[in-house]
Write a structure and sequence with these properties.
This protein is of the alpha+beta class. The chain is built from 13 helices and 44 strands. The strands form 10 sheets. An 8-stranded parallel beta sheet has the order 5-4-28-27-26-25-24-23. Strand 31 (571-573) and strand 32 form a beta hairpin. It is globular.
């Protein structure tokens, strides 16, 4: 294990130089005269004119990400040493993740701004487009009108939780559509099936004048990742018209029905104002509920709430949307949960002097605030590449039509600031299959398909400049070595799913956050993660992807997981950001960014590469990804996924039209990194790699007879010229 407390950058340079020097002692390429007792496989690259499968510029297409940090962490991460180390992995652009919206909270990207109710420092906050001091930290604010709603990732609780109220921007006042087109709802999850024939609803204002109460028949009603299997059925006496609010105890059926999930579906509002008054129309539209309880009515008409055993979880509530109203008192000012201020973000160097992808809050924000944020950034001359709208709407059970209605409003506001802005989303959670929701009136269940249709039907598909999603393909505790074989098909499949859902071919697909799994797992620091990263990047571009951002850029400390001690990051570091070494994804990033492609050089053109190296079960053991670089060289990324054996390979470039075959010829760079250079030692808080050597590089003279020996469990890059080949 390298001890790098003095100067890790210098130590790494020396180690790489030593690896290059030692590589002369390792026969990395063999010819028939050199002797090899194993039958060589073949990698074939289809370079037939017109057969190019993708093209990309690494300075736009291969990047990393920055997520939420504490105030102390921000101060440490944005120090010269940590920034230098973070950038040394070679990634180009950066995407800024909006964890505040993930946690169902509002953020104040600028601490200075105006409240809609200035007298009470409450309401809807719009950050100032004018700067005072450079913004270093961004604060999160809990949402009092979240009330009992629990959907989202560990929502910020806040001190003032009151009632649930729906998002006013989903009402006809702002959408221009009848409220029936954007019904709002609350789902009650009783955690197990219970007898129900009545419900008690304590309405706040505004309340629903027309609504219905339904129960779910089927499996998990809220499992949008796998697709809810079943249907909502209205209780026999579950339709209510001309309702008058207040607290209502409603008889739903003559006899109890067994159900786990209930839904209150609201389609018309009283449009009466909430406790904040009539001065702001947003206080007076939508729906608000103080409390919901499900149960039965006894023989005397008394309401009895469902009973639960001590082992059962509490009743939870999922809501269609949340009003972003909040006050100054709702700030999470403890310092443990912050985002990086945009001035610090753009001036620190972490953007690599490249246009950055930034978020705007949408699910829990306002279009005016989003527009002000972009105006502020542009006024300071900071370069924006793309803007993501919202954060993981599928995880919050947002309906595609609701997301679409918000998207159009935000796009209108943002394009007033700058018509050239490239906007996109929806920033889906990491899924391997289509996101399925409850069927609409036409029976359509695809979230993406319905979102695309919504934009088309409103003549606003041109506002969608890209589609972004996260990629967390594996269950964290179920990963085995064989799991590695599935990755290329998984990433290419989900790209095809989005296209099949209707995403136009000219709308780029981007992975803006990714790792092995959505929760920390041991393989994230073993050689497994390096091979996976190389495979997922290669297969992503092979499948037609446009931009891939690996997460995260900064160091993070080690933690115990179901499969051993691990870190999310490229580094072996402690909680104080002292870097003690590097994890396998760091070296994989070097292989991708510094060997396979060349940043700051321009467009790379990709051609289909295939191999014939399989195990007895038919699993492909060696994968290959070929690019033609701007300097005229060919670069081949090879992943030997065989945990136990090296594999020799011939390389053939094929032009089917010319019926010609060619090979590397002349000086060729051979770089490899794998289990011979890196082995993770699982040793609790002292876990580390030993050995932890960087990639080995050598120069060889290649010709048509050369056989390239790929070490076991390794990533290899072959880079050289193929004379006479013009794809």
């Amino acid at each position: 294990m390298n001890k790098m407390s003095g100067s890790p950058g210098k130590t790494r340079t020396i180690a790489i130089a030593l690896a290059v020097a030692l590589s002369a002692e390792c026969c990395v390429a063999q010819t028939p005269n050199g002797g090899t007792d194993r039958a060589a496989g073949t990698v074939r690259i289809d370079v037939t004119p017109g057969h190019e499968i993708n093209s990309f510029d690494p300075d736009r297409a291969l990047g990393s990400s920055l997520d939420v940090l504490s105030r102390i962490d921000i101060d440490k991460v944005f120090s010269p040493h940590i920034l230098q180390e973070s950038l040394s992995a070679g990634w180009g652009p950066i995407t800024y993740r909006n964890n505040t919206e993930l946690r169902m909270a509002a953020w104040h990207w600028n601490p200075n701004g105006a409240w809609s109710d200035a007298a009470h420092e409450s309401g809807y906050f719009t950050g100032s487009t004018q700067g005072k001091e450079p913004i270093r930290y961004i604060l999160a604010y809990s949402l009092p009108h979240r009330g009992f709603a629990t959907s989202g990732d560990r929502p910020l609780q806040g001190p003032n939780l009151s009632y649930w109220k729906s998002n006013p921007y989903l009402t006809s006042k702002f959408t221009g559509e009848r409220d029936q087109f954007h019904p709002q709802w609350v789902v009650v999850d009783l955690q197990s099936e219970k007898p129900v024939d009545a419900v008690r609803i304590a309405w706040a204002s505004p309340y629903a004048t027309r609504y219905q109460v339904e129960y779910w028949v089927g499996g998990d009603a809220l499992d949008f990742d796998r697709g809810p299997k079943g249907n909502w059925t209205v209780f026999p006496s579950g339709v209510f018209k001309d309702a008058r609010g207040g607290t209502e105890t409603l008889k739903l059926s003559n006899a109890p029905l067994t159900a786990r999930y209930l839904r209150v579906l609201m389609t018309e509002s009283s449009n009466t104002c909430d406790e904040h008054g009539p001065e702001d129309v947003r206080n007076c539209v939508g729906y608000a509920i103080q409390q919901i309880a499900a149960g039965t009515l006894n023989s005397s008409g008394a309401f009895l709430e469902v009973t639960k055993s001590p082992a059962e979880k509490l009743t939870t509530y999922c809501a269609s949307s949340i009003d972003p109203w909040h006050s100054a008192e709702d700030v999470d000012a403890g310092g443990g949960y912050q985002h990086t201020g945009f001035d610090l973000f753009f001036t620190s160097g972490i953007t690599n002097s490249l246009p950055a992808m930034i978020p705007v809050t949408m699910l829990y924000g306002t279009p005016d605030d989003a527009a002000a944020q972009v105006a502020y950034i542009e006024a300071r001359g900071y370069s924006i590449g793309y803007i993501e709208l919202g954060e993981e709407p599928d995880g919050k059970h947002t309906m595609p039509e609701d997301y679409g209605a918000l998207y159009i409003q935000w796009a209108t506001a943002l394009h007033r600031v700058d018509a050239k802005l490239k906007l996109g989303g929806p920033i889906f959670e990491g899924v391997n299959e289509d996101i399925r929701v409850w069927p609409d009136s036409d029976g359509r269940t695809s979230w993406m398909g319905r979102f695309i249709s919504y934009l088309k039907n409103h003549g606003r598909l041109s506002d969608l400049a890209f589609v972004s999603f996260e990629h967390y393909p594996f269950e964290p505790c179920d990963i085995t070595w064989r799991t590695l074989y599935s990755e290329p098909d998984l990433i290419k499949h989900i790209l095809k799913v989005w296209r099949d859902d209707g995403v136009p071919k000219d709308v780029p697909l981007m992975v803006t956050e990714n790792h092995l799994a959505a929760n920390l797992t041991g393989p994230m620091t073993t050689i497994f993660a390096a091979l996976w990263l190389a495979d997922t990047v290669g297969s992503f571009f092979e499948g037609g992807g446009a931009a891939f951002y690996h997460s995260p850029i900064q160091p993070q400390d080690l933690h115990n997981t179901c499969l051993g001690w691990s870190s999310w990051s490229n580094f072996v570091a402690d909680e104080h950001y002292e870097i003690r070494g590097y994890t396998s994804p760091y070296f994989a990033a070097h292989m991708i960014n510094l060997e396979w492609v060349e940043h700051r050089s321009g467009m790379h053109h990709m051609f289909l590469a295939s191999t014939d190296v399989k195990d007895d079960g038919g699993n492909l053991l060696v994968t290959a990804y070929a690019v033609h670089r701007p300097d005229g060289s060919w670069s081949l990324l090879l992943v030997n996924r065989d945990q136990s054996n090296p594999h020799p390979l011939r390389v053939r470039f094929q032009d089917d039209k010319a019926r010609r075959e060619a090979s590397f010829s002349g000086p060729l760079t051979f770089v490899t990194f794998g289990s011979e250079q890196y082995v993770w030692i699982n040793d609790g808080p002292n876990s580390h790699a030993d050995p932890d050597h960087p990639p080995i590089s050598s120069m060889v003279q290649a010709d048509e007879h050369t056989i390239y020996d790929l070490p076991k469990a390794s990533i290899t890059v072959l880079r050289g010229k193929v004379p006479g080949l013009k794809p």
